[in-house]
Structure prediction request, 743 residues.
Amino acid sequence: MIPLSHYLLLSAFLFSCGVLGVVVRRNAIVVFMCIEMMLNAVNLSLIAFAQFLGDATGQMLVFFVMVVAAAEAAVGLAIIISLFRNKQTVNIDEINILKW
Amino acid sequence: MYSFAPLIVLFPLLGFLTNGLFGRKIKSETIVGSIGTAAVAASFVIALLIYIEMLGSAVEERKHIVTVFEWIAAGTFSANVAFQIDQLSILMTLIVTGVGSLIHLYSIGYMHGDAGFWRFFSYLNLFIFAMLTLVLADNYLLMFLGWEGVGLCSYLLIGFWYDRNFEKGTTGDAAKKAFIVNRIGDFGFLLAMFLIFNTFGTLNYEGVFSQAAGFSVGNSLLFWITLLMFVGATGKSAQIPLYVWLPDAMAGPTPVSALIHAATMVTAGIYMVARSSILYALAPGTMEIVAVVGLLTAFFAGTIGLVQNDIKKVLAYSTVSQLGYMFLAVGVGAFSAGLFHVMTHAFFKALLFLGSGAVIHAMHEEQDIQKMGGLQKYMPWTFRTFAIGSFAIAGFPLLSGFFSKDEILWKAFADGAPWMWAIATLAAGVTAFYMFRLVSLTFLGKERFDHHHHHPHEAPRTMLVPLLVLAVLSIIGGYVGIPHVLGGHNYFEEFLEPVFAAANSKMMLPSHDSAALELGLMATSVAIGLLGIFAGWKIYTEKIQVAEATAKRFSGLYTLLWNKYFVDEAYDAVIVNPIKHSSEKFLWKIFDVKVIDNTINYSAKLVEATSGIFRRIQTGVVQSYAIIFVAGILLILGYLSVW
Prediction:
């Protein structure tokens, strides 16, 4: 059997990659893809725990997370399209007028 | 009948409200004046009925407490709006309402044609209301309410003609002076009330006096309580050092001077001391101070009155002087003698003031007696009543003033000290002299007024009737207190005896059996009084040169007396101007502007600066927010893993 710690480490690694991407990348769509990566990392760790504890609750939660991710992606992309129509760019460094 | 007592206080209040709210619309002076006079007269009638009932009942049943409503009930402290009807309060009530209603009647004639006629009567009724509250209260708190109320009405009435000038300022200045000086005294009274509450746990007379009986003579707490109360009395009753407002109070209309500054408000201090007689009996130190202050004031004010030329000023200083006699009396333990003088003084001083009002009216607001003279033939009845009042105040034998003043002088000798009697008798001589100087310069001798401008005439009937009534009272008012040595029975003292029984037992005054001594002293003071009367009359009718020559020879003393010993100037220099100066230079320009304003301004600037630093966090770039987010999560994880 693959030990639990392997799954969790993978999950943590994927999550950190996602966080790094959200913080560093400039393209809004790439930021969204990294957010999806973070959500999937969490799914992975949920499945791993469900398998190892023999409790199906983890798998149920995964469904919830997936639904939320889908809805959030739809809304988020709609916002990006609206932004692009106004500012002709998806570079989030240039979307900064809500400041002091 | 006692249950009707609240009506005594209610009627003047209703008169005040009616005239105050609707007076301007009631165009008829007769109605406004009648409402005002009737309110006080009705109170007098009820008080008289209660008095008659009191005379018919046994001595033990003469004190009643009538509660109107429960005012303050806070834990163990309670003070009600309740009236204590006993011999002392009914006496004061009769004086206030009796003399008050006569003065209201007089005012109908005196204030005729004045634009503020309705305002005058509403203020007068308010004053009577407050004064009655003061004398009928059954606890110190309600008395203080009345105390402050009469001070307020004094202010309102002194400054009644608010658009007039008076001496170096306006009538408003005189009114403010009265109120502020009164306030200083009130502060002493307030401190005394705090101490009373602290010591006795209550402010009700019953509670305080019954507990006080258990204290020993010379207790230092009682010394301070009584001394502070006396400070209040010096303010209200114009004694040294707080008498300076009373001469200035002559800026008000003459009926005001008669009612407030002669007959009633100024006697509030003596009433207060008499009411607290048991406390004073237990504080002989304060009693001595009271007697000495009263004695000095009597002499001091009398000397100032010698050289004044304004008819009302002479009477004002005379009032201060006579109040000094009353305090001398209560200070040596002769409480009923002091109150006897309160009563007779109310009669003849009100008479004198109202008479002077008639003169001022007839002379078209002229008040300088140097510009009068010979008015006797134009105003015969005013002259006769004024003369009766002057004889009474000078202590002419068998008039009211003779009996009351003589009792005070005798008690000053017997219960005080011979030197007190000597100075008091000297002051009596001075009183007689200046009163007859006033009578002579005003009514007798050569006519020194301009006949083209002044056409003096007798006063109208509404003004004469009160003068006549008061003249009769000034003559017969003393017969209730004929001393034993002259073969009489002092009904007055006997009536009031139960009120002062507790105090008298604590004071243990020696009994006086020496009738010869008393008669001898009486004869001496009568002689000095008659000498003063004769000298005042003779010099100022026929030999004014003597007076002028004396004034020139002792010009330094004359200047000192004419400028009232420069007391006002001294107060200005030592107290008033330093306070004004430091308030303006320091408290306003430095403390208020630089310290208080700047504290506010700089705290605002501090907030502005701090926020200027913190707002830079909002960069507008979403990723910087995400960085802070991540940093926070790492911190929490680190903390959780370490802990």
Q: What stands out?
A: The longest helix of chain A spans residues 57-87. Chain A has one domain: 4-94. The CA atoms of residues 58 and 93 of chain A lie 38 Å apart. The interface with chain B takes residues 19, 22-24, 92-93, 95-100 of chain A (CB under 8 Å).
